[in-house]
Amino acid sequence: MEEYTLETERLYMRPAHIKDAPFVLELLNTPKWISYIGDRNVRTEEDAVQYITSKMLPQFEEKQFGNYMVIRKEDHKLIGCCGLYDREGIEGVDIGFAFLPSYEGKGYAFESASKVIQYGKEVHGIATVSGITVKENTASQRLLEKLGLRFIKMITLSNDTEAVMLYRNTTEHA
């Protein structure tokens, strides 16, 4: 039986494994990921393994939190990812989420993000949670607001040319 780090009513969440490479390849090449998050040049399963080992796993090793794979309980299907990221240029941690198109609009992102934020506060003492999104991604803006984050300002992260909208929780409880 697989070990899960977090659980909600409908979902399990756990750190990524190398075996998730086919899913990561599919997710990172969805049209919304490429338009709203950016093309990560992951074109093969080998690229996906490299992405998991270089981008997803190191933060878990260092901070004990990061990107969680989101699995639907009813059929144990990988449907997306959600996590807290220690991103340069952002105060506190950044909440991020992405789901395969067929699982969008069903409340999975809110359910998983709420749990990840709660876990961050309760287990790691994370009081400040930020979120970033591009102006065109109104669904992410609505979700960030539903999670209790509010728009602060436009920022440009290092190594990026496009400004993104910065959101942050305004009622910080330790």
Automatic annotation (TrEMBL):
The keyword Nucleotidyltransferase does not apply. It is an enzyme of class 2 (transferase). The keyword Disulfide bond does not apply. Its EC number is 2.3.-.-. GO terms for molecular function: acyltransferase activity. Residues 11-174 form the N-acetyltransferase domain. Keywords: Acyltransferase, Transferase. It comes from the Bacteria. This is GNAT family N-acetyltransferase. It comes from Dokdonia ponticola.
